[in-house]
Please model this.
Amino acid sequence: MEKRKRMNKKAQNQISFGMIFSIILIIVFIAFAIYAIGIFLNTQKIAQVQSFKNDLQTDIGDMFMSAGGEKEKEYFIPKNIEQVCFIDYEFYNMYFKPEGKYDGKELEHIDIENTIRDSTSRPKELCIDTENGKISLSIKKGYNEILVTIAK
Model:
């Protein structure tokens, strides 16, 4: 009888150790899966920002090459971007708010002085709000102008 009790306790300890080990493996697997999903989502947002930058530059280039005109454009960007801002800065003329998550860009063929001319903020900038991961803006060029202007 004594021997049987000892064997039951030993079997219980072995089952407990096996269950604890299994739980630890499950927790590690779940943590890794969450980490991998986070990396994937962050990569997707970075790609979406890059696509926005490229598409905007292409549309500015198209307007620059035209005789003149105006077109309203809508772009998709990550929902965590609250505003896209245009500014006359040494290294870039477009950046995102909140700052720090994504790099700014030096857009070509843009008349930044005309774009921010009516701004009352210091420093002078034009910030356009986003809504549910979309931004709408106007790309225009007068028939007697060389560069393109951005407007809300």
Notes: Helices lie at 2-65, 112-116. DSSP finds two helices and six strands in the chain.
